[in-house]
Give the backbone structure.
Amino acid sequence: MTVARSFSPDGGRRHVVVIGAGAVGGATAIEALRAGLRVTVVEPGEPGGPQATSYGNAGWLSSHSVVPPALPGAWRKVPGWLADPLGPLALRWRYLPRALPWLLRYLASGWTEARVQRTADALRTLLADAPALHAQLAAEAGVPQLIERRGLLHAYRSRAEFDGDALGWRVRQRVGVQWEEWPEDELRRREPDLAARYTLGIFVPEAGHCRNPGAYVAALAQHALDVGAERVAARATGFRIEGGRLRAVRTEAGEIACDGAAICAGARSGPLAVAAGSAVPLESERGYHVVVEDATAGPRTPTMVADGKLIAHWMDGGLRAAGQVEIAGLEAAPDWRRAEILHEHLQSMFPSLARPAPGAPSVKHWLGHRPSLPDGLPCIGPSGGSADIVLAFGHGHVGLCGSARTGRLAAQLLAGVAAEIPLAPFDPGRFKS
């Protein structure tokens, strides 16, 4: 069953509080209003601002990103993660004791191809038509130009390098993903600025991207307000639950009486989930980006390169490279060397890209926190303490892409109607030991 597609006038409606105004929170608020609910959004920061996770991500609406980060044999790479603080995936030694339980679950989730396939089967239901859903939301919010649906490219140095990713592409094929192979001459014709070492392109036509994730998230939040939501600029701290029923959301500004709530606070959702009766192993996969504002060379198609594990494409503010993973928690200081390495990779990908002087004002760095659960799947479902509280977070690398359907699902749960896809794989209770 899908949510009704028209907005309802106010008057005697069930009141729900959406905690967080990021990509998931904004979509949830819009869809909850569409379902006829009264909505209050609780968000302490500026929606879409630099503090927001989606502000600085790669912008990919990669409906084919169904393969979890951990694959069979990943355990062999752990010593390298610890030894190389600037590698594609790094784990800070000081944080290891705290991260170890999450890391063990992370490795176990991809222990076999069968486990990877189960994750992919579930993620595909969440992501399959994400570019179309985002195009619809962007049009409603008055920013249709921010969503582009013209495919995404994976670039490899050789056929052998592509074959090294065979498991991932085999899993994608089983869930219905289709792609085109661009041999070297076709890749060179379509991507003339790309370094000559890349000789094979894998183009996924169904995917899309967002030209300015921060502006898109801000537009969703504003659209929710325009069509009837209220906003409280405060941090949510907990809940008042009586007899299994939610009575209020507690915030730094006081209680908000309500009938339902959705936790959409990204990497900071953990304590709220505990307060709602669902302890889940949420971790931050810290990601960096670099933006070259005055770049004169770059990709024609948003591109991910296999050797650097990063994504490069044009944003409204310039050429952005984003990627890598750092496990160090929410509070550790940034290691800006990681952003500088992204810049070096970017220049290596596009040799004609001018090399600005160190510290040039046209080069911007950023750090954000991907909210990640160890099995590669988000939590979408009622909390353990009250069915009135819906958990909707933990999307890891597919938060922006998965936010559109997640918003629909969260709204359906809040409205008491059947979810449009099976939610069992995303059940927050799956982590009970």
